[in-house]
Amino acid sequence: MSLLEVKDLHKSFGGIVALKGAHLSLGEREILGLIGPNGAGKTSLFNCLTGQYRPEKGSVRLAGGPELVGLRPDQITRQGLARTFQNIRLFPKMRVIENVLVGFDCRPAYGFWSALVRTQTFINHEKQLLAEAFELLELVGLRPSANLIAEALPYADQRRLEIARALATKPRVLLLDEPAAGMNPSETASLDQLIIKIRDRLGLGVLLIEHDMKLVMNLCDQVVVMDQGAVIAQGVPEEVQKDPKVISAYLGVVADA
Amino acid sequence: MGELKKSLAAALWFAFLAFPLVGVRADFIEKTVSWRWLNLLWVALGAGILSYVWRLLLAQKNKPQAEWTYTQFAMPSIGAQALTHPWSLALMAMALLVMPMLTNQYQTSILITAMMYIVLGLGLNIVVGMAGLLDLGYVAFYATGAYVYGMLNLYWDWGFWAALPVAGLLAALLGTLLGIPVLRLRGDYLAIVTLGFGEIIRLVLENSENITHGPAGIANLPKPELLWTKLDFDQQNLYLYYLIFALMALAMLTNRRLQNSRMGRAWLALRENELAAQAMGIDLTKTKLAAFATGAFWAGIVGVFFAAKSSYINPASFSFHESAIILSIVVLGGMGSVLGVVLAAVLLILLPEYLRFLQEYRMVIFGVLMVLTMIFKPDGLVPNARPYYLKEPDESA
User: Fold this and answer.
1) Residue A70 has what pLDDT?
2) Distance (Å, rounded) from C-alpha A144 to C-alpha A137?
3) Distance from B272 to chain A by nearest Cα, in Å?
């Protein structure tokens, strides 16, 4: 039984076809790497999954949940699909911990009036959220920076904060769009540890786009390869590496043998 | 000495700028032109000294601190901390409360105006400062409040207190209705549409003569009633003063509380990055409409107060100029900052009053001060400081 099931997604922008029948499936507690050359449609696929784009055709389902295609991004997040962005999109002028607190917004909570009157519900709820937010920051290693303004964080920490913020929505599947982009090797290595820790601790499925092949091959249980809007291979890393279709997508084919 | 040179340049530049204003006097009757070089010298000297002192202070401030840590980096300024300390707040409140007994009616009345603009600024602070929705038609809700009271009184003889909540809620409703068509707009586009909306409301009020009395306006609106007592003129004024003081305190409290709740965080997130906010599960529609409605509510409330205070309203009081002033209050004060709005409103409303002795230079000085503020404090007078979050020890309840 797979946790996330994506079938036959189609998306085009005018005459440009970004996705033609993309499909994948992600198991419970699985880390799935999504790779492919530039322009293969990886980020388009992400945007379709999370509702930023509306695919023309296809289906996205979380196990036991409703059809996600056609829902708004915030509704999809509430269903348990949370993402980070390729180019960091934090709330730069808010404190680090507030960025995480915003992620809690999708949970049922107190209303407008109890915030005004500061009812006991409000106070208890805020305390609870704060405790959870500190725990999440602890998990990604940002506990000491909790009260910094987010834009003051070093680059790699900003990426970690994005992950913590996504986790605050209590997702079942975490989508990471190039989490290691712009990181140096030691930062990448600790990110590797972090993703595994998150998977083990919280029992999530993780889908990640990544160009850093070392990271992908170390980390992922399964790899999906995309080219020109379609999935051309799925399998364990060692297998995929040898697949002739994958090699030709990355390196091109010899014109005439 | 580079600093001295820069100050010299500033002095020359100011003298050059001020030349047409203070350096030449053309007498059109006598047909003579007199040159007033001495004036220019004073301007240059003043600008030069000010600029030099400013630079010295700046250099002082930028000196590296011995124990510089991350947390200090994000600290609100010492001035802001001192001002928001409970004791100083209590002191200021006390001062404001006894003020009308010590001063004359003129002072009381300009303080009333200043406090009205504080409340208006706090309302717009929610929409522009927190949620980042640039609204240039805020005056529309102010007008709505005033006219709701005007018409309820004109046709059904409603009093101030009955009209107050109704007008607030109707303004909030109008805010929501305006919000719906502009949900997808941001930044400049939103600004243009709201600007248009503000003008539409004013024009509708001006042209529906058989309902609103058009440009002639509605007169003889009663002042707020205090139970069944009859107040004389001075007492009325005092009553208005304490009323707006209470409204201001309430507005400050709600602003502050909302800002540090999940509503406020959602608004800030919206301002900071709409796409990410939505990806974090924030319902953009609800959040934006809540901002518009809450902001408009306060404008409606102040609208009623304004109508009761001046006992006469006409559409000319609700021109774009008002929106511009309220927006300046929010921007000058610092987006999202409650203390900033208060300071900026006080400056923007009281300064032109207290500068009257400068006569025709009044607005020039005013303009210069505003430009200087924006150059040296681009984040506003009191940039919005977010609270600190501490983890409580687990054993405490």
Assistant:
1) 85
2) 8
3) 5
> For chain A, what is the radius of gyration of the CA atoms?
19
d(CA A220, CA A236): 8
**Under an 8 A CB cutoff, do A52 and B279 touch?**
yes
d(CA B243, CA B233): 15
Q: Looking at the partner chain, which of A74, A95, A147 has a beta carbon nearest the beta carbon of B281? A: A74
From the centroid of its chain, how far is CA A243?
26
- Residue in A closest to B266 by C-alpha: A102
Inter-chain residue contact B266 with A147, CB threshold 8 Å? no
Taking phi over 0 as left and psi of -120 to 50 as alpha, with beta for the rest, A253 belongs to beta
For residue A46 the two structure tokens come to: 């992400």
Token pair for B302: 């102040």
Residue A21 corresponds to which tokens in the numbers above? 């029948």
Q: What is the C-alpha to C-alpha distance for residues A92 and A227, in angstroms, rounded to an integer? A: 34
User: Inter-chain contact B268–A110, Cβ cutoff 8 Å?
Assistant: no
Helices B105-124 and B233-259 meet at what angle, rounded to 10? 30
Residues facing B49 on adjacent strands:
none
Helix, strand or coil, per DSSP, at residue B109: helix
CA of B209 to nearest chain A CA: how many angstroms apart? 39
What is the maximal distance between C-alpha atoms in chain A? Answer: 78
Assembly ipTM: 0.89
pTM higher than the cut 0.90: no
Distinct helix (H) and strand (E) counts, chain A: 10, 9
Which domains does chain B carry? 2-61 (no CATH), 78-376 (1.10.3470)
Q: How far apart are CA B234 and CA A239, in angstroms?
A: 90
Q: Does pLDDT of B257 surpass 50?
A: yes
Residues 6+ apart with CB under 8 A from A152: B70, B73, B74
Inter-chain touch A146–B389, beta carbons under 8 Å: yes
Measured CA to CA in angstroms, residue A219 lies from A3, A82, A180, B122 at distances of 19, 20, 12, 51
* pLDDT at site B80: 62
Q: Which of B119, B209, B188 has its CA nearest to residue B196?
A: B188
Q: Touching check for B261 and chain A: CB below 8 Å?
A: yes
Q: Is the dihedral of CA B44, B49, B52, B58 positive or negative?
A: negative
Distance CA B174, CA A236 (A): 58
Q: Rounded CA gap, B17 and B1, in Å? A: 25
A92-148 pLDDT per residue, tens? 988 898 899 998 887 767 777 777 777 777 877 888 888 888 889 989 988 888 888
Question: Choosing among B250, B337, B389, which should be mutated to test the A contact, i.e. which has the most A CBs within 10 A?
Answer: B389
Chain A partners within 8 Å of B277 (Cβ): 91, 102
Residue of A nearest to B267 (CA): A102
Alpha helices in chain B (DSSP H): 2-18, 37-62, 70-74, 78-84, 86-102, 105-124, 139-156, 160-179, 187-207, 209-212, 233-259, 262-272, 274-279, 284-310, 320-333, 338-354, 362-376
pLDDT in tens, B163-177: 999 999 999 999 999
CA B18 vs CA B14, B40, B361: distances in Å = 6, 7, 11
- How, if at all, do strands A222-227 and A230-235 pair? antiparallel
Q: Are A90 and A151 in contact (CB under 8 A)?
A: yes
